[in-house]
Design goal:
The structure is a single chain. The protein is α/β, with parallel strands linked by helices. It has eleven helices and ten strands. It binds a DNA duplex through α6, α7 and β6.
Length: 248
DNA sequence: CGCATGGCCCTTA
DNA sequence: TTAAGGGCCATGC
């Protein structure tokens, strides 16, 4: 087909073209193994731009970006380890084309460590838009690079896992595989406990914060809100930064 | 408690 | 330009 020949021509051109010229026109893509099966990953000279299940990858890319896609010989540096470890610090991302709000949301989500979760409202507070909770959900739903930006680690304030771009079931599987104790979180939520405090450190955390996980059981106190924990003399953890004013 | 509802705000059609 | 709707939240029975 004409289009295929055009792409082939562009690919041939790429060998001689200065770095980045082709990347302004087209993206390249590879197929790599991921934690929930085979993934297609598109990238430019700036970094990874799109992650999507291998099934229907090209169609999804075209629908979203409307740009040509060329096969690449090898994945970009750091991609495969990032997918394996759940830490994306070693791989560059190309988030051009996203709004400032979307980028802010994604950057905040990116700071959530493997095996931990934070509420949607926490993201909203982090980026200085405490009332844009719902828009945060929308932005995460449009995350072009799931897994690399770990939007699966953003869960609902009431303890439910919430929705996910690849489906809620996949979200649960991913979190369990990362070691998040969802059953324990459900139990806590059933008792209306959304924060844990230590009476030896005087600090209150999100339950999955690594600081909270080390609290000696006898010194652990559960709270429904940060306001209540503060009233009891605790201060918010500087690592997990539990926001205030939620879940009255 | 579980459910319904109003609120909020960014994006897209 | 506007209106509708979405990976949510808190409140009120």
């Amino acid at each position: 087909m004409t289009e295929d020949r055009l792409l082939t021509g562009l690919a041939a051109l790429a060998a001689d073209a200065p770095d980045g010229l082709l990347d302004r026109i087209a993206a390249r893509w590879v197929s790599v193994p991921g934690p929930i099966g085979k993934l297609g990953v598109a990238f430019t000279d700036q970094g990874v731009a799109y992650v999507h299940p291998g099934e229907g990858f090209a169609e999804a890319f075209r629908a979203r970006f409307g740009r040509p896609l060329l096969p690449a010989a090898r994945p970009p540096a750091g991609l495969v380890p990032a997918l394996r470890t759940g830490r994306s610090s070693g791989v560059r991302l190309d988030l051009r084309g996203l709004s400032g709000f979307q980028r802010d949301v994604l950057e905040a989500a990116r700071t959530i460590p493997r095996g931990e979760v934070r509420p949607y409202s926490w993201i909203a507070a982090q980026i200085g838009r405490p009332k844009a909770v719902r828009a945060v959900g929308t932005a995460l739903g449009n995350n072009p690079v799931p897994l690399l930006i770990p939007c699966h680690r953003v869960t609902r304030s009431d303890g439910a896992v919430g929705d996910y771009v690849f489906g809620a079931a996949a979200k649960e599987r991913l979190l369990l595989a990362e070691g998040a104790d969802l059953e324990w979180l459900r139990e806590l939520a059933g008792e209306r406990v959304f924060y844990l405090a230590s009476d030896t450190t005087g600090v209150v955390c999100f339950p999955t914060c690594h600081n909270a996980r080390r609290i000696t059981p006898g010194h652990r106190h559960g709270f429904r809100s940060v306001a209540q924990a503060k009233a009891a003399g605790y201060r918010p953890c500087r690592t997990c930064k539990p926001a205030q004013g939620l879940v009255g």
